[in-house]
Structure formats: C-alpha cells, structure tokens
Write a structure and sequence with these properties.
Length: about 80
C-alpha cells in the first residue's frame, strides 16, 4: 500500500464523500482520483451513491462521477491499512 493509498484509507473508516476527502487530504483532484482508482482495483474500498444504497453501484467510477459518490474502506482495505 502506497503512502497515498494509506492516507486515503485512513480517511475512510467511516463513510466519506469526495469533498471531505479533498479538504482533509489537501491533495489535487487527480491524485485523489488515482488513489481511489488504485484502491478500488485492489478492493480496498467500496463506494455508494447514497448512504443507504448498494455498494459499488452500476455507475462507472470516473473523475466526474467520484465527486458525487460516498466512499468507505472495505474489510480487506482495513486489514491492509492496519498491517502496515
């Protein structure tokens, strides 16, 4: 897990939206997108369209769509984060 991925997962112990991630991490839009995409590929995080929605909905994860999504670390992601 890279430093960027670690920092992102650290913010995702609870459901978090894109704007909160951006404000808390103080990173560029592109870096956040790259980090989230990498974490999704590893199944370290999941995303929702609404707080009581189904995880990883049939919405493509893009730089534009991520601004309207909610994120949460998966069990696999939490284990990787805590074993570092």
């Amino acid at each position: 897990m890279s430093d960027l991925e670690y920092d992102i997962v650290d913010e995702l112990y609870f459901v978090t939206n894109y704007l909160s991630l951006k404000n808390n991490l103080k990173l560029s839009h592109e870096l956040i997108f790259d980090g989230l995409k990498s974490l999704l590929d590893k199944e370290y995080i999941i995303y929702f369209t609404e707080i009581d929605g189904i995880e990883n909905p049939k919405i493509d994860f893009t730089e534009k769509s991520m601004q309207n999504l909610l994120f949460l670390a998966s069990k696999k992601g939490l284990l990787a984060h805590n074993s570092r």
